[in-house]
Specification:
By secondary structure, the protein is an alpha/beta fold. It has 3 domains: 62 residues, no CATH class; 173 residues, FAD/NAD(P)-binding domain, CATH 3.50.50.60; 150 residues, FAD/NAD(P)-binding domain. It has 14 helices and 16 strands. It is globular. The mean pLDDT is 96. It binds flavin-adenine dinucleotide. Flavin-adenine dinucleotide (FAD) binds next to α6, α10, α11 and α14.
């Protein structure tokens, strides 16, 4: 078991987290030829989780103890999986690592996005304590670009990693979407996670409400399943494409169905109606799938005279995320037309020497396993860069 754990930990900084929340049906298990031949793949996720949980219990997860301390320091902006994976790899090499985050707890979406029932927060906290014990410093409640300028970080650290994720919600563009009771997915999930962590939260819950969640991704599935747990009277998911075209994990959709969530596929909202300023009804229209567009996905169009109404006293918008304005963090970073940071695909260097970027802010809204991988790859490139800087300083 110990050897198996070590092998599994060689390529992943948090196998017990990936084992719990990766969509294995789309990734490793789905790609397995045994799965494709109809015999069912080995349950890779469950194995990763068990091996690493077992390793923690038996004390096989070794503390981070660098062979020697190095002088230069690294500033990491963002304590999500990309930032944490990079912090661990760089600290193991002996560099001084400081992680900055605007949130009051480290973990990024592992802590505040993904619900407790999918990922117990103690599992995330254990990883953060492991980093603190290994000498990684965390500076929380600190927004880079507002509380501390990017240039002051550049003066303080020999290299910087930007791992800030993507947090701008796509807004629902229909009449009535400003009514009370119409809320965004992420604040709703954050508040729910905060309650689970024991914080005092005053925001409304889904208890005793008819809830409609708009969207078909993993965030939408997290919202419907959270609403069920909060005691909603009914939970309906409205998605404009069909089940086969849902972007979320198939197993999460199945879980939601098993828990009693009603799905209205091929349906899009037209307007939200309110009673005394609070949402009371969603007017929706049936959609039809057309030919694939440029992206390869089938286009959708509304079916005439197919409108229908759904009673609702809470509407949650889960339409995906785009990057925030990164020029507010650093004005000189080169961005892509999508607003993500332009970085080298393997080394994750940006256009500014010594500044690297990884995770969702490079790839766009994606998955934890990619954030970890990119954080590790960026850390390798940063290690080389820092070694060169050290040699140069010695030569001067
Ligand atoms: C609701 C939800 C559920 C998800 N479920 C899954 C799942 O089940 N499985 C899966 O694989 N993926 C899931 N994902 C996607 C996954 O969480 C992300 O792909 C992953 O967390 C990205 O990691 P990251 O480190 O790039 O960014 P994040 O995890 O977003 O972390 C970024 C951090 O940067 C901080 N930050 C941002 N700007 C600043 C600033 N200016 N100054 C200081 N700090 C800053 C933020 O506070 C945050 O802590 C989910 C996403 C959401 C929204």
């Amino acid at each position: 078991m110990e050897d198996a754990y070590r092998l599994s930990a060689r390529t992943n900084s948090m196998p017990e987290i990936c084992g719990r929340i990766c969509p294995q049906d789309r990734l490793c298990e789905g790609a397995c030829v045994i799965e494709q031949s109809g015999h069912g793949a080995v349950t890779i996720g469950a194995i990763e989780k068990t091996l690493t949980d077992n390793a923690w219990e038996n004390g096989w997860v070794e503390p981070i103890r660098p062979a020697s301390e190095r002088k230069l320091s690294v500033g990491i902006i963002g304590a999500g999986p990309a930032g944490l994976a990079a912090a661990e790899a760089l600290r193991q090499q002996g560099w001084q690592v400081v992680v900055y985050d605007r949130a009051d707890r480290a973990g990024g979406l592992l802590m505040y996005g993904i619900p407790n029932f999918k990922l117990d927060k103690k599992i995330v906290e254990r990883r953060i304590e492991h980093l603190i014990d290994g000498g990684v410093k965390f500076v929380l409640n600190t927004n880079i670009g507002t509380d501390i300028s990017f240039s002051s970080l550049q003066n303080k650290h020999a290299a910087i990693l930007v791992a800030t994720g993507v947090y701008k919600s796509r807004a629902l563009q229909v009449p009535g979407s400003g009514a009370g009771g119409v809320i965004e997915a992420l604040p709703y999930l954050i508040q729910s996670n905060r309650r689970g962590l024991g914080d005092q939260v005053n925001a409304e819950t889904a208890a005793n409400k008819h809830v409609v969640v708009i969207g078909g991704g993993d965030t939408a599935m997290d919202c419907v399943r959270t609403a069920v747990r909060q005691g909603a009277k009914s939970v309906t998911c409205l998605y404009r494409r069909d089940q086969a075209n849902m972007p979320g994990s198939a197993s999460e959709t199945k879980n939601a169905m098993d828990e009693g969530v009603a799905f209205k596929w091929l349906a899009a909202p037209l307007a939200l109606h309110d009673k005394d300023g609070h949402v009371s009804l969603v007017r929706a229209v049936r959609m039809r799938l057309g030919l694939p567009g440029r992206s390869g996905r089938q286009a959708v169009s509304p079916i005439k005279n197919s409108e229908f109404d759904l009673g609702a006293d809470m509407v949650i918008q889960a339409l995906g995320f785009t990057p925030e304005d990164m020029s507010l963090v650093c004005a000189n970073l080169k961005l892509t037309p999508h607003g993500t940071i332009k970085a080298h695909p393997a080394r994750f260097e940006t256009n500014i020497p010594g500044v690297y970027a990884a995770g969702d802010i490079v790839r766009g809204a994606s998955l934890v396993v990619w954030a970890i991988r990119e954080g590790r790859d960026a850390a390798n490139a940063m290690h080389e860069y820092l070694q060169k800087q050290t040699a140069q300083m010695a030569a001067e």
